[in-house]
Amino acid sequence: MLSADFVIATAVAYVGLLFVLAYLGDRRARTNKRSFLHSPAVYTLSISVYCTSWTFYGAVGNAARSGLEFLTIYLGPTIVFVGWWFVLRRLVRISHNQRITSVADLLSSRFGKSNRLAVLVTCIAVIGIAPYIALQLKAVTSSIQAVAGASEVGRGSLTGIDDVGLAFGVAAGMALFTILFGTRHIDAKEQHHGVVAAIAFEAVVKLTALVAVGVFVVYIGGGFETIFSRAAEMGFAVQASDSFGDRWVTTMILSICAIICLPRQFQVTVVENSNEDHLRVAGWAFPAYMMLMSLFILPIALFGLTTMPAGSNPDMFALTLPMAAGQDGLALFAFIGGFSSATSMIILESIALSIMVSNHIVMPIVLRLTAGQQRSDGQGVTSMVLVARRFSIVLILSLGFFYFFFTRDSDALAPIGLISFAAIAQFFPAVIAALFWRDASLRAATLAIAVGFIVWFWCSFLPSFESVSPAVARLLVDGPWGISWLRPEAMFGLDGLDPLTHAVFWSLTLNVFILIVASLFTSQSALERIQASVFVDVFRRGPVAQGNFMRGSATANDLFFVAERVLGERRAALLFEVEAREVGVDPAMLDPSPDFIGRLERELAGSIGAASAHVMLAKVVSGGHVSLEEVMQMADETQQVIEYSQQLEKTSAELRTTARKLEDANAQLRELDSQKDEFLSQVSHEVRTPMTSIRSFSEILMEQGDLDEWQRQRFVRTIHGESLRLTKLLDEILDLSALERGERAWENAPTDAEAALDRAIAVCDALVRQRGMTLELGQRARPTMVNGEADRLCQVFINLISNAVKYNTAEEPVMRITSIVRSGSYIVDIADNGPGIAKGERKLIFEKFSRGLRGANGDQSGAGLGLAISRQIVARMNGSLELVPGPLAGACFRVRLNVVRS
Amino acid sequence: MPRAKARAPEPRKLASGMLVLTGFGALLLVPPLVYIFNQPISHFGVPQIVIYLFLVWVLLIIGTAVLTHFMPRSDGSEASDDTDDSTEGDS
């Protein structure tokens, strides 16, 4: 027979073993970053802190009382882990990036680093978890009582101590243990490798213990078949038709919420996670663990129901069955298993809650109080945090103890746990909104959680005191002040639902409704929008984008002081040295960049929470938070899309411009093409006329041999003349096209233009005389140097003079040539008293093959290329050739060239 | 893993597969589908509904393990991070 003293001694020894494990684990984790403590197996085992004594004892009791319902508590988390890719992975990534330390920190960080929200969440968690802690105390107490009550000698030193005293002892022991365990130092990421190692060990212990009891029960019960059939004979049917009613769905939803939002689950799954890939294993291994835990619960419950005396507590079957069979060793193992599951839960839960309390409630107060006094305490904040955490642990366990004290008369374990689940589930809508919904706002989340909590308090928490308080019992029946539609278990007259379903329905429905509607009606602050974008787009942006949103400047000195207060001197100094080395300056000369301030903020957030870290740095960093442009640029995805489409628009506008240019170029090309065609046809026409006459005259010469000598001579002369004209035409065409292509290049050199003009007049003298023309030489310039080539210039003048002679049809033809130098230009005017050039032709005469109308008559032999060639030549000399109103009746051509100053 | 990666299906399709597994897994465990198996029949002495629930459970575990095996790891290139459940596919 086991004695209570022996069992208690074993429990204390077991705790001692855990402590050693935690100590070794811490040391190992610190010295070796790749040890098995960082393996996915340990991670998965630590998550199974979810299976508390509620599982170990309560599930059996639950199965005995309400059949399969206990399974929902494990099926819900299975769903979450099967879908780890969607929610858990996101949570872990965000928390790593943002150094999230708790679920309160997560919500606070997402909703604009609001401390008020963090405080609300922390308070709800502390109150909501109290029943859960009470459940563990109750389970441990009951298990010790079960052992002690079974024998006459068993009570030993427990004689005279009742449940309450025992529970107090357990709570005090746990508080001490947790303080020793979890608050020895502050980790940069709030990771407690030693504790996790101990928790993993406990996970193995409780699983083996429960499986051992299960195998034993199946063995002595004669196998699954016998146990189930005997239970069926005695009327304990598993497949009751009401198993899958509203409670089934409710508890499933609650367990889904709990596995994500319970402070200790958040701690082990998200905060203690050292590698995102560990989730890959946990995704299937944790459901497998839960399935193994659940495998033997039904046989144990059914066998207990059929063999144990009526009225015995089904919660303790796992312990009392081996004892009834006389297996003391197994019973002791079962006790240690149950104790394991209770201790692991209490340790982690109170560590997680104490982090929340110290980061979100104590730290902001301390920071406010000690803001003035500085410099004196290097380690001040660090030790303050530790003290705050120790007090929080005591407070949390006391709350649990008081809840146990007030509700000690209710006998079942599972309903107590579900009350806690319902409280914690109030965070779930906000957490999901934080991860997936950009528009969820701070005010909406705060209001939704608060309302959900109030409804929970009224409908679920208060009624649990029914058995101890007559006032509460009266309230349940009549409602407050006799208002029946406010009765806690029948709000708005919704009667007939199971109380838990009722509470969960109203609290979660109102919670979600308010969260959505209020978000749509409120607006977000700049910081909220940034954080929303960082959370929602965590997989869309690179790791850079988690940057800093605190702009402005601060001296390295101030920053160092802040860092030193929180992180301790050594880590702060290290941080600054690393930064200084990266920038490449002396640590004393470090000029903190915005990036560095951002990194510092995250480091601080790892120790004191996002909101506190933000407040601390905001005091030191001067300058605005974020400018509107930065918000638009950095955070807003809408903005990104807009920018992208603007870029697209710009590109397409560019494309349009290019297309238009191409069209223009194409039109130009087509124009040139048609010009070329025209030119060719004109050339052909010009060539054809002399060719025709040459051909006809030569045919006459060939065919008619009786021509006299004189006629023959005349024909040959004509043929010769036409050939000359043809040659000249071809020469001119070649000359012009060469000039146009820039082939016939000559070096422009200072040339005496006046001399060239004189030479031209001399050459044309015979022509002028032959025509009987009067040449008036007007005012002449002195010898003037222009940039050009003498022969070419002379060619131009000859062309102009001969034109004036050829086209003059006046009775008394007169030509006047003048030249002057005016404002740096040498100007030659060649005028005649001919018919002039009709208005419509003035533009055309410089074109190829244009001869003017009067060119049709007379004996001129030009091809109409002269003026075009002249104009090209003058243009090559940087001058101009144009038609101007002249002093005589006819046309007046003006050549203008730049004078070279010597 | 490199060999598995080489013939692995598209990550986004795998993610969709996981979504289906999660959704249908949840659907199989709640009314009305559980009603179908909640009959007073026993196999090997164990009620059918118990066998059904544990069978779904085991299949979910195996399904998750298999799908996860083909999922890209996070410690690889950053590109694997963009294979999100969302429709965004930038690099």
UniProtKB/TrEMBL annotation, chain A:
<feature type="transmembrane region" description="Helical">
    <location>
        <begin position="444"/>
        <end position="465"/>
    </location>
</feature>
<feature type="transmembrane region" description="Helical">
    <location>
        <begin position="6"/>
        <end position="24"/>
    </location>
</feature>
<feature type="transmembrane region" description="Helical">
    <location>
        <begin position="164"/>
        <end position="183"/>
    </location>
</feature>
<dbReference type="Pfam" id="PF00512">
    <property type="entry name" value="HisKA"/>
</dbReference>
<feature type="coiled-coil region">
    <location>
        <begin position="634"/>
        <end position="682"/>
    </location>
</feature>
<keyword id="KW-0175">Coiled coil</keyword>
<keyword id="KW-0418">Kinase</keyword>
<feature type="transmembrane region" description="Helical">
    <location>
        <begin position="412"/>
        <end position="437"/>
    </location>
</feature>
<dbReference type="InterPro" id="IPR036097">
    <property type="entry name" value="HisK_dim/P_sf"/>
</dbReference>
<dbReference type="InterPro" id="IPR003661">
    <property type="entry name" value="HisK_dim/P_dom"/>
</dbReference>
<feature type="transmembrane region" description="Helical">
    <location>
        <begin position="195"/>
        <end position="220"/>
    </location>
</feature>
<keyword id="KW-0597">Phosphoprotein</keyword>
<dbReference type="InterPro" id="IPR038377">
    <property type="entry name" value="Na/Glc_symporter_sf"/>
</dbReference>
<keyword id="KW-0812">Transmembrane</keyword>
<keyword id="KW-0902">Two-component regulatory system</keyword>
<dbReference type="GO" id="GO:0016020">
    <property type="term" value="C:membrane"/>
</dbReference>
<feature type="domain" description="Histidine kinase">
    <location>
        <begin position="682"/>
        <end position="901"/>
    </location>
</feature>
<dbReference type="InterPro" id="IPR004358">
    <property type="entry name" value="Sig_transdc_His_kin-like_C"/>
</dbReference>
<feature type="transmembrane region" description="Helical">
    <location>
        <begin position="284"/>
        <end position="305"/>
    </location>
</feature>
<feature type="transmembrane region" description="Helical">
    <location>
        <begin position="387"/>
        <end position="406"/>
    </location>
</feature>
<comment type="similarity">
    <text>Belongs to the sodium:solute symporter (SSF) (TC 2.A.21) family.</text>
</comment>
<keyword id="KW-0808">Transferase</keyword>
UniProtKB/TrEMBL annotation, chain B:
<feature type="region of interest" description="Disordered">
    <location>
        <begin position="72"/>
        <end position="91"/>
    </location>
</feature>
<keyword id="KW-0472">Membrane</keyword>
<keyword id="KW-1133">Transmembrane helix</keyword>
<feature type="compositionally biased region" description="Acidic residues">
    <location>
        <begin position="78"/>
        <end position="91"/>
    </location>
</feature>
<protein>
    <submittedName>
        <fullName>Uncharacterized protein</fullName>
    </submittedName>
</protein>
<feature type="transmembrane region" description="Helical">
    <location>
        <begin position="49"/>
        <end position="70"/>
    </location>
</feature>
<keyword id="KW-0812">Transmembrane</keyword>
<feature type="transmembrane region" description="Helical">
    <location>
        <begin position="14"/>
        <end position="37"/>
    </location>
</feature>
